[in-house]
Amino acid sequence: MREVVLWALAIVAGPTYYVLSCAFFPFRNCGHCKARGRFSRKDGKVHRPCWWCGGRGMKLRYGRRVWNYFAKARKKAKRRAAAAAS
After folding, report:
1. 42 pLDDT more than 90
2. Residue 40 lies in domain
3. Among 19, 32, 35, 46, which is least packed by CB within 10 angstroms?
4. Is residue 47 part of a domain?
């Protein structure tokens, strides 16, 4: 019985933690440039912006992308409902 409760707690706590972390910390470090925002040659003389993150060193988390998608869909639905009611 105790194992079932622990598994249930883990199943609920894991996604909850990820959702909260996406809400408060929506960006992650870019894995390609290691959060520097640029690439350089081995001799260090030439730099160029990171192509994957656009030179910012950070990328939007996957969970936050889903969050933004549903937020935009909700906004759009509200505007359509308000327009239909008018």
Report:
1. no
2. 27-60
3. 46
4. yes
